Amino acid sequence: MARLLLAIGALSLSGLPALAGGCASGQCYTPAYVPPTYGLVTEKVVTRAPETYAITTPAQYTTVYDKVLVGGGRVWSVTRDPATGRLVGCWITKPARYATVPRTVMVRAPQVIPYAAPAQYGYRTHKVMTSRGYKAWVPSAPPAGHGYGWSGYRGR
Fold first, then answer.
1. Which stretches of the chain are DSSP H helices?
2. What is the annotated signal peptide range for this record (predicted)?
3. Closest CA to 142 of 12, 30, 33, 34
């Protein structure tokens, strides 16, 4: 039994430094929590949707004045002759008479003009998790005063 204990003690001090409580240079690891990392994401968003509507313009009218013949020209006239009492017919030329008559005229027809307003965009930036936090085994620190590349030389 004493031999067994002696063998276990020798094994623990020589071949398995981690089990023995000591650590050979850079061969020991420690459990650690690696926190999550975050980043910013910028995305294009619609701030106003596109829309289509129509602009209607009414018709435009103006008044035009026409000169029209309202009287005059040749007319057949039948009268009684005062001396004989007989009916007498003849053509009589009357001077022309004109009048100005207004009328409304469409200058421009009504129009429907379609109009499309494009969408308006903006940018939104928000924070997102790029990796989750996790537990990992990381190399443990070397013994105090024995950093990597330590050769034992102390400058004396």
1. 2-14, 17-20
2. 1-20
3. 30
